[in-house]
Amino acid sequence: MFANRADCDTVNPMRHLPAIIVHGGAGADPGDAPDEIRDGIRAAVLAGWRVLADGGRGLDAVEAAVRVLEDAPRFNAGRGSVLTSTGTVETDASIMEGDQLRCGAVGAVSRIANPVTLARHVLEDGRHVLLVGDGALQFARAVGMPECDPADLVTERRRRQLDAATADIKGTVGAVALDRQGTIAAATSTGGMSGKLPGRVGDTPLIGCGTYADSALGGVSCTGTGEAIIRAVLARRALDILRDTEDPDYAAHVAVDLLVEQGRGEGGLILLDAKGRIGYAQSTIFMPVGWMTPSFHEPQVPF
Ligand code: ASP
After folding, report:
1. Rounded distance from Cα 276 to ligand 1 centre (Å)
2. Is 96 in contact with 272 (CB distance < 8 Å)?
3. Is any atom of ligand 1 closer than 6 Å to the C-beta of 48?
């Protein structure tokens, strides 16, 4: 089921008017604690918007928005992540800015409550794009990130889902922002797929698959079956479609069609173009989204 184009604010013609859009995953069950989902999305949009409204950077805005959702146990990221087949939490995250195409990502990370911030450290450090597993944890220690007991990231809800063999639960979170300087940034964070094998890394930390930002074009954050998103190289391809069509919402829909037909999986994505116009689409029943632009007095959370 696709979102209705008329639902979007597509009129934000000035290049440097800020905008932000966030998502809470293309697998969320709309009937399961919808208020928690709505509150989380709203809080995330506001956290990012405060940064942008103060003239702050897109990178800070998407990091702030994603951290809110990592901290909210209802979402599949940070605390509240889905569990591996052995009952542990292993998270993936990435962040990118579209001026210099600087990016940072982490995969299969445990003990870190806010993996998006660890990905940001990788970006700022600049030596590498992607760190995984123990190496990522050693890097986290070196940059002084707080470490938590792995059990603190495991919630009762996720344990029940694993016991009930409710595999394939999706719910990644992500954000894309345009700041007043005209920079696009994007970030995505996830616990992955419920019941995944330990060591499995999905699309989220793979730049061009789960996340991409190019200030000349726009930014994308994806959610859904990671293996399918990787096959479709979805985030970058969505921007190529945007370049050819100049219609963010149409580009989002065409990209999701590619995910289904070529990637052979389900999911969705959010997209923001260089003018701050938003687009989103999903092939699943539900993908909570929220956004804010100067056209509104408060976050738009249409569900
Ligand atoms: N894309 C994520 C992954 O495969 C899952 C999700 O979007 O919920 O790791």
Report:
1. 25
2. no
3. no
User: What is the whole-number distance in angstroms between the Cα of residue 119 and the centre of ligand 1?
Assistant: 17
Atom of ligand 1 nearest to the CA of 210: 1
Distance 227 CA to ligand 1 centre (A): 9
How far is it, in rounded angstroms, from Cα 190 to Cα 170? 9
Sole residue written with tokens 């959370």: 301
Rounded to whole angstroms, the Cα distance separating 73 from 251 reads 31
Has residue 11 been placed in a domain? no
CA of 157 to the centre of ligand 1 (A): 18
Q: Is the CB of 170 under 6 A from ligand 1?
A: yes
Residue 154: which CATH number? 3.60.20.30
| Total tally of structural domains belonging to the chain | 1
Q: Using a 6 Å cutoff on CB, does residue 193 contact ligand 1? A: yes
In a domain, residue 2? The reply is no
Determine which residue's CA is closest to atom 9 belonging to ligand 1.
192
Q: Which domain holds residue 187?
A: 20-292
pLDDT, tens digit, for every residue of 101-152?
999 999 999 999 999 999 999 999 999 999 999 999 999 999 999 998 888 8
Is 302 contained in some domain?
no
Q: Is the minimum distance from the CB of 76 to ligand 1 under 6 angstroms? A: yes
Task: Check residue 3 and give its pLDDT.
Answer: 39
State the SS3 of 17-52: CCEEEEECCCCCCCCCCHHHHHHHHHHHHHHHHHHH
Q: Is 166 a catalytic residue?
A: no
Single pTM value for the model: 0.92
Query: Is residue 166's pLDDT more than 80?
Result: no
pLDDT in the model for residue 185: 98
Token pair in block for residue 194: 């419920």
Whether 299 is in a domain gets the answer no
